[in-house]
Amino acid sequence: MYDFLDKYTKRKIKLVQLLLSEDRYWSLNEVAAYLNCSKKTVQADIRNLKNELLLWTPEISLESSSKGYYLTKEPHFNSQKIKIHYLQTSVSFSLFYHLFLGDIVSFTHFAKKQFISYSLMNKEVNLLKKELMFYDLSISANPPTLNGLETQIRYYAQCFFWNSYSGIDWPFSETNREELLGLILEIETLFEHPFNQIEREQIAYGIAIARSRISRGFLIQEEIHFQNLTALAPFDNQLIPLYKKMLANLKLTPQQLEREIEHLFSLMAIIPTATQPTQIIKKLLMNYEVQNPIYYQATKAFLNAFNQNVKTIDFDFQDPTLQFNLTSIHTHAYFFIGLPTHHISRTIIPASQEAKDTLGKLYDDFFDTIKDDYELKNIFQQKEFLLSSYAPHLMPYLDRNYYEKKIRIQIISNNGRHYESKLKRDLIDYYNFNIEIVSSFEDTATIDLILTDVMTTQSLNSLNCFLWSSTPSRGDWDRLTNHLKKLIDHA
């Protein structure tokens, strides 16, 4: 959501992040080079920032002297709060926030309250309109309102608030966070598999957003495709009372309450949480087999294509854990659409280009086979989101020796064999490349790369020698990453 911020505000955020990155004074030349601006601009930004910090919080302060610039902060201060502060005070944030609440009388009135011109107001509205198009949403002018399915409005709001606050702050003063988290934990206990801390917080955001919209009269009316979603789950008779508690003190008819409960359940159903095939997961998959919802059909169809067309190791396309997780991903794609970079509960692992190309080609070929099936096509249109979501669940089964070049690396260190062994473990843990470490005493072995912190006769004569420090820095690791990618690309 920070893309909406103006260049000046983005530059101030970058400035603060630089000053906090190391506990030292930063020279004017260093700051100007980092921000890619003139020294005069830096000096003006420093003056403004110093005054703003004084007015905003005593937790951080900016010192300016002949030594350079130094930013001090309290030990508990989270630097992400700086981004949040500037975002909250931006016109872009206020625009969506008040459209979400439904309390903008007119854009003219809103522009006056924000102390901006009407032309700038139009610019901000048009920027937001472009963003909302990816969520199948739009904005009406008279009166200013968000248009589209209520579930999509809430989904975009969840993406908006999560990408703005990331769980650092709780922006929903009308809802008790601790009570919601307690109810979520009860549901986790019922299903015998927990969410992680981030997923739990994201779900709480989604529930708080639903409560905010319901309390202002924005109800789910037309999303009948949510119907009977909870009925697929075991123990739905135990689940429903917990969801009712989440919606306590909101005036809803029985029919409205049923739709809202289905929506709350969807917020959890879209997260691929399974790590082992529990009895509950097996019962849920049995229900899926009987009811055969479209998102389960999508899982069976894609796993079958993966099994038939990809060279794998130890892959079982009938594995309940895998089926459950992919069904959660397809449920997500079926019920919600949006920008892949903003999707909630998105998990990505790095993968080599060969592996990504393999999965991408399979996806394209598979899409051609189902493009005439409207409902399946509707799910698989979200290619970038689905491919990135598949990665942690399917990539581990790829036969890497078949699809990826194996890079044979020899480590030669001035720190001795023990240190070489440590670097070997670090390399394998750090990278997702197909790496084989060749012992430093094997002189005749075929080697793709010599990794060393000392220039020897052997390394000097090697066409592929990578020199780094005896205690590799983050910069060394980044350089090595780029070097390994080039090796693979030119294989």
TrEMBL record:
The keyword Transcription regulation applies. Coiled coil: none annotated. It holds the Pfam family HTH_Mga. InterPro entries: BglG_antiterminators (IPR050661), HTH_Mga_DNA-bd_dom (IPR013199), Mga_HTH (IPR007737), WH-like_DNA-bd_sf (IPR036388), WH_DNA-bd_sf (IPR036390). Residues 78-161 form the Mga helix-turn-helix domain. Residues 9-51 form the M protein trans-acting positive regulator (MGA) HTH domain. The keyword Kinase does not apply. Keywords: Transcription, Transcription regulation. This is Mga helix-turn-helix domain protein. It comes from Carnobacterium maltaromaticum LMA28.
